[in-house]
User: What shape does this take?
Amino acid sequence: MSIKSKILVTGGAGFIGSAVVRHILTNTSHSVVNVDALTYAGNLESIPAELHSERYVFEHADICDGVAMARLFAEHQPDAVMHLAAESHVDRSITGPGAFIQTNIVGTYTLLDAALHYWRGLDEARKAAFRFHHISTDEVYGDLEGTNDLFLETTPYAPSSPYSASKAGSDHLVRAWHRTYGLPVLITNCSNNYGPYHFPEKLIPHVILNALAGKPLPVYGNGQQIRDWLYVEDHARALFKVVTEGEVGETYNIGGHNEKQNIDVVRTLCALLEELAPDNPNSIASGREGGFASLITFVTDRPGHDARYAIDAGKIERELGWVPEETFDTGLRKTVQWYLDNESWWQRVLSGDYQLARLGEAV
Ligand code: NAD
Assistant: This one.
């Protein structure tokens, strides 16, 4: 890819997509076309106004809309696609799987179809350089309960939830479009992300914001489920490396070597809040017995809840020289501090005002 390429990012108003957009605009000379339907998870305020320039365009569109996708490829002539748009919350996939099948499977198919049509029309040089990078999850590999195994790129798929099954389906489609039609694809499967601009329904921001508000900190089951955590900006750097340097047709696992039980994550967050927010009325320093940790509440486990995920990220480290910059301790501290410093961002999410941005009333 040349140093001034145009990258079409789907889902660029989401948690990881916005980190990718911020990374590209801040650290490279490439341009971004951010294609996002602005579902409840999309927030244009996650791309600060100071990053807006002639290198950044937002397109409000649904990846399931084939006519819109064809128009976007024809109009913007991208050099690469980074596909992050998805329904991403496991709990929502259990209560309403339809949207997951639609966006994650039908939407990925629609995008692949538009990309293939566009790619076939490129001249030979641009055709050879084009990349379609599909961003997926380690949850497609299923549950590692009771073993010390790590997920490898060759681990068979065994998804447990409607979310992970729909992502597995999308991965298979992307591989098939490479094998059958020659579309130059790359796939990455990453572990759980955390960091700034994370929508408050997910564990880490949910715990931080509930703790600050003195509300219960819900922990599923016995809290012993293990997740392998990666700081979102490390993920964004890894994704950029893969789309610019990865080998066509390959899959790369991405992870942070941070296997933690959920209950330990919650306890660590409480300890960080004791240190960083001692003036909050729910801290020990402000006189609450047991402090933030006294808010921990065990709740009925999620159906089909996987016990353990853990990634072997050796391939991307060896072949592309990527390693995470943050440890879990440094990343979690940065994350808590970010939520303390950016109350206006999350207050607008909690109140629903962030959705006004789609009407052009903000940003
Ligand atoms: P997110 O839910 O925060 O963001 C998803 C974005 O996609 C939102 O901006 C939403 O508006 C947009 N979107 C949803 N449906 C759309 C549609 N039909 N058309 C266009 N845009 C649409 O998700 P995230 O956590 O940023 O995850 C991004 C990608 O990374 C997903 O594909 C997810 O499966 C994958 N992933 C996430 C994690 C994680 O820990 N969050 C880990 C590994 C992989």
Summary: The CA atoms of residues 203 and 350 lie 15 Å apart.
